[in-house]
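Key result, reporting period 2: structure in, sequence out.
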């Protein structure tokens, strides 16, 4: 069994509970669910689903960058409080991926609520090269 390494960066918000932002194990980085918290203020961004989605993906990018190696996002999970906002999130997601990754596998799930009143949460799995 390989060592499990915790990933930390000041460029993404600190976890809001007893977990790591991400961990590296067996050639993969597992990024915990991220929401649209501004890492500077520690608060959820204002502006609705689009602003939250942009901040969420920026936070994931910061964590992936902190891994410090060549890597590829291979799977994402998106949790939405309102599936009627899917088209906005899908657009932001597509724009984000155009700059960082090929199209990973993905699932999108509707949920009743998310931490801190967020409208979106996203986690991902990254393959390290």
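The corresponding designed sequence is given below.
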């Amino acid at each position: 069994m390989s060592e499990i390494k915790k990933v930390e960066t000041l460029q993404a918000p600190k976890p809001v509970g007893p977990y790591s932002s991400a961990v590296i194990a067996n050639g993969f980085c597992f990024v915990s669910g991220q929401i649209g918290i501004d890492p500077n203020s520690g608060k959820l961004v204002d502006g609705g689903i689009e602003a939250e989605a942009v901040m969420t993906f920026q936070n994931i990018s910061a964590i992936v960058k902190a891994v410090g190696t060549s890597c590829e996002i291979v799977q994402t999970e998106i949790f939405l409080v309102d599936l009627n906002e899917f088209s906005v999130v899908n657009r932001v997601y597509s724009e984000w991926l155009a700059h960082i990754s090929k199209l990973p596998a993905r699932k999108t799930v509707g949920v009743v609520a998310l931490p801190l009143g967020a409208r979106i949460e996203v986690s991902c799995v990254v393959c390290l090269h």
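The first strand starts at residue 5 and ends at 7. The radius of gyration is 14 Å. This case is discussed further under Risks and Mitigation.
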